[in-house]
Amino acid sequence: MSGTVRYCMVLHLHQPRYNARTMQYYQTYRHIIDVLNAIPEARININVTGVLLETMENGDPDLIDGFRGLAESGQVYFTACGQSHPIFPIVLMRCGKDACRTQLEMDHDTKRRLLHVEPKYVRPPEYGCSDAVMDMYQECGFSGTIAQDQVFFQNRVGTDRAIVRPPKSGGGREFRIVARNDGFSNVIGFNGKGLDDYTAWLRDGDGTPEKLADDFSRRLLERSYGGVTLTDCDGEALGLWLQNSCVPPEKQNVLGPILRSIIDKGIRLVHLPELAESLPVMEAGEIPTGSYEPYGLWTWAGHPRHFRMWEAAEQCWEMHKRSGGDERVKRLAVDAMGSDWFWGASRGWSDYWTERPEECRKNIESIMAENAPVQEAALAAA
Q1: How many whole angstroms separate alpha carbon 132 and alpha carbon 74?
Q2: How many CB atoms lie within 10 A of CB 104?
Q3: 51 exposed, middle or buried (CB, 10 Å; 0-12, 13-18, 19+)?
Q4: Stated pTM of the model
Q5: How far is CA 347 from CA 302, 342, 343, in A?
Q6: Which residues pair with 45 in a beta bridge?
Q7: What is the pLDDT of residue 128?
C-alpha cells in the first residue's frame, strides 16, 4: 500500500509588506531551505506571496537565492498567488476583475524576476472561492488551483479526484481543482485539537520531532483517501510559531524528520501539477461562492471593522485608475487589499492593522497631489 500513497505538501509563506515582525520569520525560511538542501529527494510545493519576496529581496537576498536554487533543482514547485494575498471573491466584488488580474500579474512578474518561475497553478489566498474567481483564473491562463475539501463534499466529489472545468468557449485549456485535506492540514500546521494537538505534545508531553514525524507519516499511510493527500499550512508554523508557543528549542525542528519519515515509509512526495494531472476527474457544477464558510471574514465583506477598510481599499483602486500608471500608486492600491490587514482587524489586534488601508489611501493622495502639476501640464499640452 505504501507505494500507492501520494502526498502533496504545500507550505504557505506570507507576511504583509509593512509588518515589522517579518524579519523574525527569516530564520524559519532559512530553515526550510536548509532542510530541503539536506534532503535532495524531497519534493514539496511552496506558495510565497510577491510582497514577501520583495521584502526578502530588500531584507535578506540570500533567501531569494536559496528559494531560486530549490526551484532550479526541481525540488520545489512554486505556486501563483495574488501579490498582496488578497481575498479574491471580495476584491472581485468591490474593486472589479482588473484589480484581481493586476494582483495576479504582479505576483507573476515578481516570481519570474526573482525565482525564474512562471507557475500555472494558483494557491488561492485564504481559500476564498467562487465560481467567478475560478472563471477569472481560467481566463488568465492558469491550469488549476486548490480548494478546501468542503467544496468537494458540497459537490459530492471524492477528494481523490480532480474537479475539471472544461475549456472556455473559443479555445483555451481545461482547469483542474484538487482538494486540500483540511483535517491533515490542521494537524501538520499545528492547529489541531485534542489528540491532534502536536504543539501540546511537543511542549507538555513526551513528543519529539521524530515521534511526531512517525505519527504523521503513519496517518498518511492509513488514512489517505484513495491513496492521495494534499496538505496546505502556513510555513511559519514549522518555525517561529513553535518558538512562540514555548516549545523547547530542541523540539522545534520538525520539517526534516517529517520529510525523512515520509520518504522512509515509501510515501511518494509529489508536486501539485503532477498530482492534479494524474487524478481521475469529475466535471464541475458551479463552485459555491465563499468556500471558507467557517470564517465570515472571507465570505462576508460586511464585518463591522471591515466597512471602512474596504471603502479605503476601493478608493485606493479608484485613485490608481486615475493616476496615469504611477507605479507607486499601484503598489499602494494593491497592498491595501492584502488579507492580513482584515485578519488583524477581525481578531481585534492593534489599530495598526485596521488603519493600514486608510494609510495607503492617504499616501496615494499625497503622491497624486505631488504629481498634480505634472498631470495638469500634460492635459494642457494634449
Answers
A1: 33
A2: 22
A3: buried
A4: 0.92
A5: 15, 9, 6
A6: 10, 77
A7: 83
What's the rounded Cα separation, in Å, for the pair 241 and 221?
Answer: 27
Complete edge-to-edge strand list for the sheet that includes strand 121-122: 121-122, 144-148, 175-180, 162-165, 281-283
**3-state DSSP helix/strand/coil % of the chain, to nearest 5:** 60, 15, 30
Beta-strand pair 175-180/162-165: antiparallel
- pLDDT value at residue 241: 82
Cell triple for residue 197?
494537538
The DSSP-derived string for 34-84 is HHHHH-TT--EEEEE-HHHHHHHHHH-HHHHHHHHHHHHHTSEEEPB--TT
Provide the residue type at 272 as one letter.
L
Burial of 103: CB neighbours in 10 Å, binned 0-12, 13-18, 19+: buried
CA dist., res. 177 & res. 145, Å (int)? 5
Inter-residue contact 184 to 303 (CB < 8 Å): no
Cβ atoms within 10 Å of 98's Cβ, excluding its own: 11
Whole-number pLDDT of residue 380:
44
**Backbone φ and ψ of 77, nearest 5°:** -100, 120
The string over 7-37, giving b where at least 16 C-beta atoms fall within 10 Å of a residue's C-beta and e elsewhere, is: bbbbbbbbbbbbbeebeebbebbebbbebbe
HSE value, Cβ hemisphere, 13 Å, CA-based, for 117: 29
Q: Is-contact 46 76, C-beta < 8 A?
A: yes
> φ, ψ for residue 253 (rounded to 5)?
-90, 90
Instruction: Give per-10-residue mean pLDDT for the chain (382 aa).
Output: 80 87 89 97 98 95 98 98 93 93 98 98 90 89 92 85 82 86 93 87 95 96 96 91 89 96 97 97 65 46 79 95 92 95 83 92 92 49 40
Rounded Cα distance between 148 and 333, Å, is 28
At 143, list the grid cell: 491550469
b/e sequence 316-340, b meaning 16+ C-beta within 10 Å: bbebbeebeebebbbbbbbbbbbbb
